[in-house]
Amino acid sequence: MPLPILQHPTFELTIPSTEQRVKYRPFLVKEEKILLIAQSSEDAADIIRAIKQIINNCIIEGDINVDELPSFDVEYFFLKLRSHSVNNVAKIEITDPDSQKEIPLSVNLDEVQVVFDKKHSNKIDLNDDLFITMRYPTYDDLLKTGVETSDKNIGESLTELINTCVDKVYDGDDVHSLDDYTPQEATEFIDSLSGQNFQDIQNFFDTAPRLEHTVNYKVGNKKKKYTLRGIQDFLSWR
Questions:
Q1: Residue 110 backbone zone (phi > 0: left; psi -120 to 50: alpha; other: beta)
Q2: What is the pLDDT of residues 8-64, one digit of tens each?
Q3: CB 75 within 8 A of CB 68
Q4: 56 — phi, psi (to 5°)?
């Protein structure tokens, strides 16, 4: 007589960037092992690969490619997975910036959302005739350019990330995709931008949607706030 196979509940999620609906199951012991092995390596690339693999394993219904999702979508999806798989309340430890004391906090993961800046735009005017549109970086983009693992200097990483995330170049009626040009040609185009153009592109990244949640805590009688940003802050849960 075979062993019984456990049945698990399913949940639905709206992908923040596209508003696509996805049905998924909680992650199981086999997925938790994947994450624990990756976390033990303390390597950002291993952890990101594990997170994407777990999401892929748990998707039941929905036409999405996890590798093509912006990083904030992946972070949001994984956080909701954790909420339904383990506990919706995570115990997180932060360091108070003034006292340097370790502060234990409880965070309701159901309250954590992707924050959208109302002034954010993916269209950047270069001059009266030219403008570009940007796309959000995936985790593969961040790893490839060294932004996520910090294995390159920030200037080199940012230039590569810009080359990767410029989606289209609009020149009057002509539309160009940097994918149709060599890396050298793309870099020459980026290098020709003005200082203001470059600041506007940096602002696109600075104001891009992000996983963020502010928690309140006290040190003595003093009330304080701490803002958690990105998956690394939330991965310190217990």
A1: alpha
A2: 889 999 999 999 999 999 988 888 898 888 888 878 888 889 999 999 999 999 889
A3: no
A4: -60, -40
**Within a 10 A sphere around the Cβ of 66, how many other Cβ atoms?**
18
Q: What are the two backbone dihedrals, phi and then psi, of residue 60, each rounded to the nearest 5 degrees?
A: -100, -40
pLDDT tens column, 106-132: 889 899 999 999 989 999 999 988 999
Distance CA 56, CA 83 (A): 17
* Neighbour count for residue 134 (Cβ, 10 Å): 19
Instruction: Quote the pTM value.
Output: 0.86
Question: CA 79, CA 15: separation in Å to the nearest integer?
Answer: 12
Give the number of other CB atoms < 10 A from CB of residue 16: 20
Residue ranges of domains in the chain: 11-114+210-234, 123-206
**149 neighbors 44 (Cβ within 8 angstroms):** yes
